[in-house]
């Protein structure tokens, strides 16, 4: 399928994936360059049935407003490709735990703007890094995140898009590197039911959660269920790690080529508890507008280790 500037759509060859047969939600973070609907087409060409996007430039505070024609075209292509759910990731500039008053205000406003864009498109989840406390301390940082999320929820009453708090690697002063911190935020936010959880394999491993034996893997999922609840787990980022367990280094590696290795990804792909959870690869660097060969390789490997 291909979209022309006129909005006309024609069929193009799509990589065979076998995803539908296995009923697995597997996709990649794809570029929106050239138009928001192009992300769906790029995902389809990779054989994805779910994708993750930025709804705008991730290094800018605000993006150009969507025209109704853009929204209509996006929804038409979404229906034609059958890609669902679409997941968004918020801007890298946002810090809901910052000690700076101006940055804090801008971050809250930017989050509301991100959610508004997602709501227009019908995006299911907006993945958010909890924030960096910048020396104020973890408890104070969590307090600020809770206050910010309460303000954001008040500004987005009735929205269907949900925030997915992403577990972090614990690099620097980042918060959310322990399951207990994610749980604290969810439990203390007034409308905690609107919050969900995004697990990143690289981040959790770098944060100190061992995954390399089947017993450790199962123990980690049990910890998630006891601390947060597996029912809250709505997005999984599948990334190997350049750093070792507990390194607190947030550096992604291709599947099976990092310190995590291939086995944990096999367990994830075949775990019935995670069958309905969208699984998104984030190829290192995310510089993939013209070259998606690494995505193809990572996705093909994940399909190959998935049992029918």
Key attributes of the depicted protein:
single chain; 308 residues; alpha/beta; TIM Barrel; 8-stranded parallel beta barrel; two-stranded antiparallel ribbon; 10 helices; 14 strands
Report on the architecture of this protein.
The protein is α/β, with parallel strands linked by helices and 308 residues long. The chain has one domain: TIM Barrel (Alpha-Beta Barrel), CATH 3.20.20. It has 10 helices and 14 strands. It has helices at 19-22, 38-45, 68-81, 101-121, 138-155, 179-188, 201-206, 214-227, 263-270, 293-304; strands at residues 2-3, 9-10, 26-29, 50-53, 86-89, 125-128, 131-132, 162-166, 174-175, 195-200, 233-238, 240-241, 252-253, 279-281. Strands 3-4-5-6-8-10-11-14 form an 8-stranded parallel barrel. The chain starts with a strand and ends with a helix.
Number of helices: 10
What value does the average pLDDT take?
A: 92
Helix content: 25-40%
SSE string, helices as H and strands as E = EEHEHEHEHEEHEEHEHHEEEHEH
Tally of distinct domains: 1
SS class: alpha/beta
The coarse overall form would be globular
Low-confidence stretches: 1-14, 16-21
The CATH superfamily is identified as Divalent-metal-dependent TIM barrel enzymes
The name of the CATH architecture is Alpha-Beta Barrel
């Amino acid at each position: 399928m291909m979209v022309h500037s006129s909005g006309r759509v024609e069929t193009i060859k799509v990589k065979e994936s076998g995803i539908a047969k296995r009923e697995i939600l597997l996709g990649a973070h794809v570029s929106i360059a050239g138009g928001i609907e192009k992300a769906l087409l790029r995902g389809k060409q990779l054989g994805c049935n779910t994708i993750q996007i930025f709804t705008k430039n991730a290094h800018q505070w605000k993006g150009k407003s969507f025209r109704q024609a853009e929204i209509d075209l996006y929804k038409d292509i979404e229906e034609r490709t059958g890609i669902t759910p679409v997941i968004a990731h918020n801007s890298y500039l946002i810090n809901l735990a910052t000690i700076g008053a101006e940055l804090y205000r801008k971050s809250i406003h930017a989050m509301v703007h991100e959610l508004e864009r997602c709501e227009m498109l019908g995006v299911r989840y907006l993945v958010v890094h909890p924030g960096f406390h910048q020396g104020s301390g973890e408890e104070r940082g969590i307090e600020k995140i809770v206050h910010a999320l309460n303000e954001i929820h008040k500004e987005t009453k009735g929205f269907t898009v949900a925030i997915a708090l992403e577990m972090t690697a614990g690099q620097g002063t980042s918060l959310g590197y322990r399951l207990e911190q994610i749980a604290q935020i969810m439990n203390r936010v007034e409308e905690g039911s609107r919050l969900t959880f995004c697990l990143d394999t690289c981040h959790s491993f770098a944060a100190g959660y061992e995954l390399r034996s089947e017993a450790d893997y199962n123990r980690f999922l049990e910890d998630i269920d006891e601390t947060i609840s597996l029912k809250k787990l709505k997005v999984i980022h599948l990334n190997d790690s350049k750093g070792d367990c507990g390194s607190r280094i947030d550096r992604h590696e291709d599947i099976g080529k990092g310190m995590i290795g291939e086995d944990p990804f096999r367990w994830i792909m075949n775990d019935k508890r995670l069958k309905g959870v969208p699984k998104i690869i984030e190829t290192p660097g995310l510089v993939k507008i013209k070259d998606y060969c690494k995505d193809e390789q990572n996705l093909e490997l994940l399909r190959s280790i998935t049992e029918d």
